[in-house]
């Protein structure tokens, strides 16, 4: 299936669990890939679409928590739904603190799992949307010249053109030209929009 489809990765050493969950999730329109161990999943090439992981807590070899740690270190940010017949409160709390979306004790019903998967998919979609937005913002910021970046830093403080001109010892007309180019390159129409954009990019205003 195309990776454009929302994909659920099932990682569980129990073949019957993998089979039943795969059937359930496919019947609700998800693409599914299943793995008998965390080691098998790590051999898969990085996934670029929207998805989540349904992960058994206890498995031979690499356990669920260990796999969660490894994925975090490799930059894989897919949300995880833990499932376990041995879960306890401290373990579930630890998993959630590390970024798991849900921790479902076995046995769970179909609706519980489906709801957890849908929430995890939505988390991943929003995360990827934000990442795409940040990448687009940085692409536009890279179009600015060093002088335009300098003026941008002052514009977002709320300084007027004449104040910026005085600070940089250039003409007000020059500031106006550069300011216009900044707005054009960053595709914004107001200082308020400019401030919001720079906040998302992590750009600090210049000190007045």
Summarize the model shown.
The chain has 208 residues and is α/β, with parallel strands linked by helices. It has nine helices and five strands; from the N terminus they run βαβαβαβαβααααα. Helix 6 (146-155) crosses helix 8 (172-185) and helix 7 (161-168) crosses helix 8 (172-185).
Describe the structure.
This protein is α/β, with parallel strands linked by helices. It folds into 2 domains: 7-131, Response regulator (Rossmann fold, 3-Layer(aba) Sandwich), CATH 3.40.50; 143-201, Winged helix-like DNA-binding domain superfamily/Winged helix DNA-binding domain (Arc Repressor Mutant, subunit A), CATH 1.10.10. 54% of the residues lie in helices and 12% in strands. The chain is built from 9 helices and 5 strands; from the N terminus they run E-H-E-H-E-H-E-H-E-H-H-H-H-H. The protein has helices at residues 15-27, 38-42, 64-74, 89-97, 110-141, 146-155, 161-168, 172-185, 191-201, and strands at 7-11, 31-35, 51-56, 80-84, 102-105. The chain has a 5-stranded parallel beta sheet, with helices on both faces. Helix 3 links the parallel strand 3 (51-56) and strand 4 (80-84). Helix 6 crosses helix 8 (172-185) and helix 7 crosses helix 8 (172-185). It is elongated, with a radius of gyration of 24 Å. The mean pLDDT is 90.
């Amino acid at each position: 299936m195309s990776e454009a489809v929302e994909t659920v990765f099932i990682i569980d050493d129990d073949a019957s669990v993998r089979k039943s969950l795969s059937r359930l999730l496919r019947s609700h329109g998800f693409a599914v890939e299943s793995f008998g161990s965390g080691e098998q999943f790590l051999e898969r090439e990085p996934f670029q679409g929207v998805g989540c992981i349904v992960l058994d807590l206890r498995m031979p070899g690499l356990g669920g928590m260990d796999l969660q740690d490894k994925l975090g270190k490799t930059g894989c940010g897919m949300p995880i739904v833990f499932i376990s017949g041995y879960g306890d409160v401290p373990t579930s709390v630890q998993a959630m603190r590390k970024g798991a979306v849900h921790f479902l004790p076995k046995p769970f019903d179909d609706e519980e799992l489906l709801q957890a998967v849908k929430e995890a998919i939505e988390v991943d979609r929003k995360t990827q949307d934000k990442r795409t937005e940040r990448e687009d913002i940085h692409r536009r910021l890279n179009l600015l010249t060093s002088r335009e970046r300098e003026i941008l830093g002052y514009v977002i403080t709320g300084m007027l053109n004449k104040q910026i001109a005085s600070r940089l010892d250039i003409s007000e007309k020059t500031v106006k030209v550069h300011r216009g180019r900044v707005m054009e390159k960053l595709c914004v129409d107001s200082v308020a929009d400019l401030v919001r954009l720079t906040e998302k990019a992590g750009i600090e205003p210049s000190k007045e």
